[in-house]
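Trying the structure run again after the queue cleared.
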Amino acid sequence: KNNKRRAEEFLRKTISDSEKQHTLFTEKIMFTDYLQEWLAAMKPAVRENTYKYYCLVVNHHITPYFKPLRLSLDKVEPRHIQGYYNMLLEKGLSANTVLKHHSNIHKALKYACALQLIAYNPSDNVMLPKKTRYIASYYNVEQLNELLRVVQGDTLETVIRLTALYGFRRSEVCGLKWSAVDFHQKTLTVRRAAVMVGTKLECVDKTKTASSYRTLPLVPPFEELLHRLKLQQEQNRKLCGKSYNTEVEGYIYVNEIGELVKPGYITQHFPLILEKYGLRK
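Done. Tokens:
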């Protein structure tokens, strides 16, 4: 009672002190240090391979550029970010790569806004390069049949037939298990993907997008290939004995000693096949 004026003065002083502390707090946070905090916050929220990519962009590209500028989080302006994008383009990086870097910076600063560390997202006010449209070069029927002919018996026969018939991703082929095949109902279900986490290959119980989870008809040419693969695996297991790898038992796309075929091997080996048989990319 009778303390309204004193209470209002106390409120104004409390708000003022809070604002000063907030300003001092944000000024103390260097932008590059904040990015490490953002990475730590993202780690449990995204897939591990996505987190590894975030770390690669932040630690090997963004931080080396911004660290010499010694900018605190609240002092980062659109011109600083624009300068970074221009530098990437001048170094010869594609527009699509720059857009990926922008995605990381934008997400990090958006998170800072949500935490009320900054008032607005400076990356909203930059000029971005136009995304380069990818135009695929498809094989016609004759070329595809020739490719399928020359890869018979090759390690890549499985992945080439699957991608040709179903449009699977590399990771989906590598993550495919025998339990996903129903020979009785003649179906093939995609529910897993194999991804590289650093130098380690890991299989996850989810595909890249929700729509990627799908059940497809088991077409006769591929059903025949699966029966052949299953028989070959049984023969390899008997031949190798204790040397046969049983840690990834149940997977379809394995090599002669039972090891999972890595997506990177597909990328490296496929151009060699094309070159060997004079087929176009």
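Strands lie at 181-182, 187-190, 193-197, 200-204, 214-217. Worth checking whether this holds up in the mutant runs.
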